[in-house]
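COURSE: Structural Biology Practicum
ASSIGNMENT: Worksheet 4, Part C
STUDENT ID: 0417
INSTRUCTIONS: Below are two proteins. For each, the amino acid sequence is given first, followed by its C-alpha cell string. Answer the questions at the end about the second protein only.

PROTEIN I
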Amino acid sequence: MGYVIDLPQQVAAAIEGTDDTFPVRRIYCIGRNYADHAIEMGHDPDREPPFFFQKNPNNIVQDGKFPYPPHTSDVHYELEMVVALKSGGRNIPLESAQDHVFGYAVGLDMTRRDLQGQMKKMGRPWEIGKAFEHSAPMGPIVPVSKTGCLDQGAVSLLVNGVERQKGDLNQMIWKVPEMINYLSEYYEIAGGDLIMSGTPAGVGAIQKGDVMIGKVEGVGEIEVVVV
C-alpha cells in the first residue's frame, strides 16, 4: 500500500549542542498565564482553570525571519518559554509531570491581533489569528540536563533595542508541571509535543524591519527580523 501524495516533511526543531533534532508532534499554547498580561488583555488575573489553543507544527520558523502575514494590520509579539516533552500519556500525576520534560527553548507566539479580536467578538475559534504560517519563531531546544528544571528566571523582549516585555518565570499562574498534568487530563500528550507557556505583559504591534530579541534566563535568546 502506498500514499497517493508525497508524505509531508516531518517538522523538527534544532537542539543546542548537537546535530540531532527534535521531531515536533503538536504545539499547545496556554492563554493568559501571567497575571499582568491577563490584566492588559482585559481579564481578571485570579487563578481560573487554564485554557489552551494550538498552533500547527509547520508554523515553527527557525531561520530568524518573520514574514509579515497577509490580511492584517495589527501583528503582535508574545515572548514565551517553550517546553519540549520527551514522553507523555494520560492523567499524568502532578508529582511526576516534570519527568516528561526534554528541554526548553525561547519562542514567540506571533498573533494577528485584529483577526483574533474579530473571532472573539463572534464567539469563533482563534486559529486564524494564532495558527498561521511562521507564527511560531523559536530558538534551539536546550536539554533539561543543562538547564535544570526551570521555575524562575527573567524573561524579556526587546524591539529595536527597546525593552517591551519583562517578567519572570516565577510569575506564571500555572507552572510547567501543572500545565502537563492538566493537558494530560484532556489529551493523550506525547514525546514531540511542545507547550508554549504564556507571555508577560507588554505585548504590542510590530512592523516590517523591526528586530525582536527575546531572552529567557537559563535558556538563551533568539533574534527575529520582521520581513
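PROTEIN II
(use this one for the questions)
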Amino acid sequence: MYKITPRRESFKQQNTRIKLLSGVNGGMIFLIIIILIFFFRVGNILKNCNERGGYAYVQLLNLGMPLVKEQVYNEESYAENNLSLENVVLKAVGLDCLTYKNILKSEVGFFYNIGDKEESKVTFNQFSVNEDSILKFSSKEKSLNNKIYDPSLKKQLNASKPEVLIYHTHTTEGYAEAPGGAPDTTDENANVVGAGDVLAKELEENYGISVIHDKTNHSVSYNDSYKRSSETVDKYLKKYGDFKIILDLHRDSVPNKDAMTTKVQGNNAAKIMFVNAKNSTRYKKNKELTERVFNKTNELFPGLTRKILTYTRGKNAFNQSKSDGSILFEMGSNVNSIEEAKVTARCMARVLAEILNR
C-alpha cells in the first residue's frame, strides 16, 4: 500500500501566508485604534456636554431597555435638547460643522479670514434708581436706538393693565460672558433675564406698552422648569386676566457663532428663532401670532430670524395652551454675547410695538 504523506508548503507559500496574516493583524490593530479613538472622543463630548437632561444617555438606555422607554420615558421632557446620539456621533467623527462656508474656509485660503475681523460691539450700561432700572446709553448706542426706534408707535402708558408678560422657563440660560464660561448663570448681566430687561424697558419707555417682566428662577430643577413657569403664568393670569402677549424668552444652544449672528444697522445681533407646540390647545392662534411676529421681523430686520420650529409635543405644550398670545423666543445662543442679544431685544421691541400699537 502507498503511504500518503502531508504535502509540505513551499517556502513561497509560507511567505505569502505570513504576509496575509500580518496584513490582517495590521488591519485589525488599525481598526481597533480607530474604534478606541472614536469612543474616546465620544466620552469627551459627553463629559464636556453642557446640555441638561442627558438626552444621549437616555436614548442609549432606551435602545438597551425598551421596557423602560415604554413605561418611564417622556419624550416631551427632551423636546428642546439637541445632543442626541446622532449628533454625538457626528461630533465624534468631525462632521457636525460640515457646512459650505466651513468647507470653503478650509479648502480655499481666500475665504478663511472673511468675517473673522473684529466686530464692533455695542455696550449697554445699567444703573438702578430705587426699584426701577433705567438704561443709560452712550451716544453711539443712542444712534443705534434711533435707527431701530419708530416714535410714531409710542402711545400713552397704562400701567394698570399690563399688555405683555415676559418670563423665562429656563431662567439661568447664559450668554458668552457667563462667569467661567458656564452655560447657566444667575448673573442677570450675562443671561436671558438681561435681554428680557432691555425688551421690557424698550416696550414701556419707547412704545408705552405696559410690561411685567418676571425673573423667577424656574431652573432650580431643570426637569420641572415648565411646571414651575406654568404656575408663574397662572399667577399673573389670575391677577390681571389675559395678556396680549405672553412671552417665554430663552436662548438656544448652537455652537456655530456665524450661524447665530447677523448685522443690524452695522452692529452684531443674535439671530432669533420662534418655537411652537402642536399639542397646545390654542395651537392655531399661537401659530398665527408667531407667523405675524416672524414676518414682521423679516420685514423690518432682514436676516435677524432663523426659522419657526414646531414640535409635535412640547413639554407642557411650552405653556402655550394658556393664551392665544403665547409665544416663545430663542434669542441667540450660548456663543452670542449679551450685547448681541440686547440689540436683538431692542429690535423685537419694535416688532412687537408694530403688532400691538398699529
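ANSWER KEY EXCERPT:
Q1: The radius of gyration is 27 Å.
Q2: Residues 11-47 form the longest helix (37 residues).
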